[in-house]
Design brief:
Number of helices: 13
Radius of gyration: 24 Å
CATH superfamily of the largest domain: Acetylglutamate kinase-like
CATH architecture of the largest domain: 3-Layer(aba) Sandwich
Strand content: 15-25%
Number of domains: 2
Bound molecules: aspartic acid, magnesium ion
Structural class: alpha/beta
Amino acid sequence: MIVMKFGGSSVESAAAIERVASIVRARAELRPVVVVSAMGKTTNRLLAIAAAAIRGSRPEYLMQLHDLRDYHSREARQIVTLDQRAELDRALDEHFQELTELVKGLAVLGELTPRSIDAISSYGERLSSYIVALGFRHFGMETAHVDARRMIITDDRHTQAAPLYSETYAKLREAIPPLAAERVVVMGGFIAATAHGVTTTLGRGGSDFTASIVGAGIGAKEIQIWTDVDGMLTADPTILPGGHRVKAISFAEAAELAYFGAKVLHPATVVPAMERNIPVLILNSRRPQVAGTRIVAEAVACSNPVKSIACKRRIALVNIHSTRMLMAHGFLKRIFEVFDRHKTSVDMVATSEVSVSLTIDNLERLDGICEELRAFSEVAIEENQAIVCLVGDNLRFTPGVASRVFRAVEPVNVRMISQGASLLNLSFVVAEADLKRAVEALHEEFFSELDPRVFETNGVAA
Ligand code: ASP
Ligand code: MG
């Protein structure tokens, strides 16, 4: 068995679902279990509908519901046989009637709880998985549609629920292998339920997580994450187009990249698969011939010290200085308590005896944070900063990397440096205005020569 996960853009239209069907059909003998996201931007649209309901904008939410039904119906009708149309219409009616009731109920209450957010956003994956299963049948595959809420059991932290692994794995192990032996199993990502059957979700982008949980639960040979890029690249394509594809990367490196903004993979995805030593592949559903990126448990031998350069934009650098704290203890504690009270997480930290520099990416509570910090220190904020993060297992074994890095970015003013927190990365902060220049220089320095075992230049769209 393998798990194949297709994201929202891979199932956004009839044509996209047809492409997915041919990808799956070509791998039928591997006994695929298919996990799908909601079609296109459906999750956002459902959340907008909930918000409109709370505002009491009845014409608005009714219109949006109507449009969303139209969208699903229009795309789905193109990929079902004539005699499936009645079944499709009936299912769409059922789902949208229920959803409309729910939305109207919310409008009456005027209050949106995490539990009702989950109830509403679950419709995206419920619809997409049903439609994809019907479509697969139309394209000649025997399919079994499984309601993910009967398999993935979580706690009740709505909108961000955590799986209860032993229950979930037991259910998956019992139900999926016999089904997959004869048919292509299709289920929705992202959605789950509590032990009492109340619908929950795993958090935005959670379908990758579902794929990994399912893969671990059934002991899949491989987990394939099909998306709309060729895999992980040596540089963020929105900053530097024309990076090279990274063919293989370790779990630890991939997680590091994900934390630092690589959009390709949800960081939590990695955990269940890693624990069971199941390789994860990132593949492009628009270019299935490209071999993608293989994420494996063990380190990947490579003569380049850096595997990829990740970036995180729109961060603020907070410089905190207090001479009063010289030789006193408790300074760091007091600082971090302030950030904790404002529920703002700190990404990078550098300290000296009397000052601390740190970065945050959530600037919502910045004013309140500064006010509290100013009670015992001087604070200077620099917004419009970016973190550049070089990732590679080999960084720790390669002498002289830091000097190569800082020589390469010499014309750029480096604001803060962190190495050592993780042995796999070297991160520093520059002004956003300098980001492109810095990444270009680093890419030139570290990827002019490529280890062909790990990198592939051909086939990457520049
Ligand atoms: N549909 C959900 C979202 O948009 C989950 C996912 O696509 O992974 O966040
Ligand atoms: Mg995603």
